[in-house]
Amino acid sequence: MTKELETLKKELAKLDEKVAKERKALEDQIAKEEGKLDAKKQLDELAASLGYTIQELYGPAKAEGKKSSGTKSNRTYSPPMYQNPDQPKSTWNGKGKTPQWLADLEAAGRDREEFRYVKKT
Q: What element of type H or E holds 92?
């Protein structure tokens, strides 16, 4: 029984150490974020003292985690160039990796131009 108690005490000590490390990491992260907020405040105050806003100096802020290029709203439409004869709704615009259906047909000896998309009017 005492052996089990010693094992439990060791496990508790390890868990306490782990909690202390996690607490320290969170406190460091909070301090860093508070530092950022303080720096932003100081920049706002400096810009205001010179008669500007941060937005006037640097433009509008972008949402964090979002890229400015390559988003759906910035993409241009590329019309389809090739159409799968077995599944007419399956098309490819000729950009990027060749779709498997077209690669399989070409491997079977067919010419890519046979599958050129013709817009129905």
A: strand 91-92
